[in-house]
Amino acid sequence: MTESMRELRISPAAISANVEKLIADAGTPDAMVVVKADGYGHGAIVAARAALDGGATWLGTADITEALELREAGIDVPTLAWLLGPDSDCEAALSANIDLGVSSLGQLEAVAHAASGTKRAQVHLKIDSGMGRGGATESDWAEFFSRARTLQDSGAIAVRGVFTHMSLKSEASDAEQADVFRRAVGLLEEAGIHPQWRHAASSTVSARSSDLRFDMVRLGVASYGVPVTASHHAMNLLPAMRFRGQVILVKRLPAGHGVGYDLTYTTPESTTVALVPLGYADGVPRLGSSLGPVTIGGERFQVSGRVSMDQITIDVGATPVHVGDWATLWGDPERGEPHVSEWAEAIGTNSYELITRVGRRVKRVVE
Questions:
Q1: What is the dihedral of CA 175, 210, 137, 193, to 10 degrees?
Q2: Per-residue pLDDT at 2 exceeds 80
Q3: CA dist 234 to 35, 185, 203, Å?
């Protein structure tokens, strides 16, 4: 049984409300909510069901295993998995009616082989429009598209979609990539393939460029209440995650007393410190030492000294704090809590990393 002194509280209602707002803003025929990495740390099944309640028509995962988890939970809506390894179980994916993202001729052949005449593979061809990551580069398009047409005509595959990922460097960069993507789609159609879904826009791209939404947007971190554009802030997206731990020890320290490993924090005066059993093993970044914001009883403090593997210490000064009080590292600013983006800014990372790295000994509580 997981101890309750550490909690990750998840609000499916917040996810549903965010997805509904994002879909209304996008205005596309379809919307995919991405639930990879265990639903960005919120729980894949919880996130998927909440997204569907909010109006999502597709779900997205990184790999087949994640997609199969959704099927095992009885979630049978259209689902795309786009990372295929040499040992990925494509046959299981096809049996479970999972669409597969294909980035190369080799992957295309593997997926077609898995079909083996028994079940047609539903694929989305991925284009490298300039990010230099997944997808077929322009020099490979002619062969890639020709082979896809042959395999589609033979009944092995059905090309249901064509897609790309944007680098998010800038709106100008997005526009350049979009031109490449449009050129690829034109050549694909010249090869005789007319996919129903063209998709390129993530939460960020969808918010800042209506021209890149095409037939479907892929909504990621914004679905979980993490705004990444000014328009997201204007939507008042609701944070769906609260990360907190109970105070398990309160003690007095004199002025000039060091705190934590290497004694990097020294009490400026006689004070009270509170001990909270959350550390880097639980997802609290060590870089947040003496930087990360924390609230206890509506009052704001900072981590004092090093983040340890299992605990943090907080100098609460003269504020009354008691054993059993809850210390919130990130949650909902409307409750007076820090937003996860405050932690991200403090340590020079992004919110995605923080919400996906919370450790397994932290109890998940669905509100």
A1: -140
A2: no
A3: 24, 33, 14
Beta bridge partners of 8: 243, 364
User: If residue 101 lies in a helix (H) or strand (E), which one and from where to where?
Assistant: strand 99-102
Domains, the chain, with CATH or none: 11-225 (3.20.20.10), 241-366 (2.40.37.10)
Strand ranges of the sheet holding 271-276, from the earlier edge strand across to the other edge: 249-253, 271-276, 312-317
Model confidence pTM above 0.85:
yes
* Cα 348-352-354 angle, rounded to 5 deg: 65
Average model confidence (pLDDT) for the chain? 95
Q: CB of 363 within 8 A of CB of 2?
A: yes
- 277 within 8 A of 317, measured Cβ to Cβ: no
DSSP 8-state code for residue 305: S
Among candidate residues 341, 244, 249, the one with its CA nearest the CA of residue 294: 244
Q: What is the pLDDT of residues 334-356, one digit of tens each?
A: 999 999 999 999 999 999 999 99
Number of C-alpha atoms within 13 angstroms, CB side, residue 184?
30
CA dihedral 194, 197, 198, 203 (to 10 degrees): 180
| pLDDT tier at 208, thresholds 50, 70, 90 | confident
Q: Which residues of 16-31 are buried (b: 16+ CB within 10 A; e: fewer)?
A: bbbbbbbbebbebebb
Q: What is the mean pLDDT of residues 31-56?
A: 98
What is the rounded distance in angstroms from the CA atom of residue 28 to the CA atom of residue 242? 31
8, 239 in Cβ contact below 8 A? no
Give the CA angle between residues 52, 58, 64 to the nearest 5°: 110
For the stretch 109-149, pLDDT in tens is 999 999 976 689 999 999 999 999 999 999 999 999 999 99
Dihedral of the alpha carbons of 271, 276, 281, 283, in degrees to the nearest 10 = -90
- Say how far apart CA 224 and CA 16 lie, in whole Å: 9
Return the pLDDT at 51. 98
Q: Which residues are catalytic?
A: 36, 261
Question: How does DSSP classify residue 164?
Answer: -
Beta bridge partners of 157: 121
How would residue 231 be classed by pLDDT, with cut points 50, 70 and 90?
confident
Contact 250, 321 (CB under 8 A): yes
